[in-house]
Amino acid sequence: MQKKIYQINTEEYNNLTDLSETDQQLILAAREAAEKAYAPYSKFNVGAAVLLANGEIIKGNNQENADFTDGLCAERVALFFAHATYPDVAVKALAVAAKTGGKLIPGPTQPCGSCRQVFVETESRFKQPIRLILDGAEKIMVLDGADSLLPFAFKPDSLG
Ligand code: THU
Questions:
Q1: Atom 3 in ligand 1: which residue has the minimum CA distance?
Q2: Phi and psi of 39, rounded to 5°?
Q3: How far is the CA of 136 from the centre of ligand 1 (A)?
Q4: pLDDT in tens, the chain (160 residues)
Q5: pLDDT value, residue 59
Q6: Residue 64 belongs to a domain
Q7: Range of 137's domain?
């Protein structure tokens, strides 16, 4: 038996303006997308913005349903729309922001497990990591890839 410690690297920021222009732009796009979420049941408005390798920014937000299980998270709405529109263009970065009662949550906004799994698939598909920017009013966390959010993930090569 061996005990092992695995390391997760993060960057944490307390101020939006401490991030690069590109990251700030993506965060603002995610915050804007959160405004247009359809979240009448949870009243938790989530916005996601995806930066593609062609420079385009694709936005998405959570879409809820009276049959609660039929809704979809902001991150997957944005990613799936990006892939549907540009199936051959890699994803460079994704920012996610959440608002409730009209205010940003303190943060960092943590993506759900299913969204993490989809990040892993996107990284496998385009063979490159996605810079993940988890917004918040008090703390913004940046990760250099989905491995940090979902270690030991089920990936295409897990199928054997
Ligand atoms: N939600 C997202 O949009 N992204 C996540 O990663 C976590 C949760 C949405 C789903 C639902 O509409 C609401 O937030 C409350 O769970």
A1: 73
A2: -135, 60
A3: 15
A4: 999 999 999 999 999 999 999 999 999 999 999 999 999 999 999 999 999 999 999 999 999 999 999 999 999 999 999 999 999 999 999 999 999 999 999 999 999 999 999 999 999 999 999 999 999 999 999 999 999 999 999 999 999 9
A5: 99
A6: yes
A7: 10-153
Any domain includes 159: no
Residue closest by Cα to atom 10 of ligand 1:
73
Closest ligand 1 atom to residue 112 Cα is 6
- Residue whose CA is closest, atom 1 of ligand 1? 73
- As for how many domains the chain has, the answer is 1
For residue 3, tell me if it sits in a domain.
no
59 in a domain, yes or no? yes
Is 12 a residue of the active site?
A: no
pLDDT (tens digit, 9 = 90+) per residue, 8-21? Answer: 999 999 999 999 99
Could you give the angle at the alpha carbon of 111 between the alpha carbons of 67 and 32, nearest 5°?
Answer: 85
- Nearest residue to 96 via CA among 14, 11, 26: 26
pTM greater than 0.85: yes
Task: Report residue 147: phi and psi, to 5°.
Answer: -55, -35
To test the pocket of ligand 1, the residue of 36, 45, 46 to mutate (highest count of ligand atoms within 8 Å of its CB) is: 46
155 φ/ψ angles, rounded to the nearest 5 degrees? -120, 170
Which residue among the candidates 75, 121, 123, 138 is catalytic per the annotation?
A: 75
* Radius of gyration (C-alpha) of the chain in whole angstroms: 16
Q: What is the CATH number of the domain that holds 17?
A: 3.40.140.10
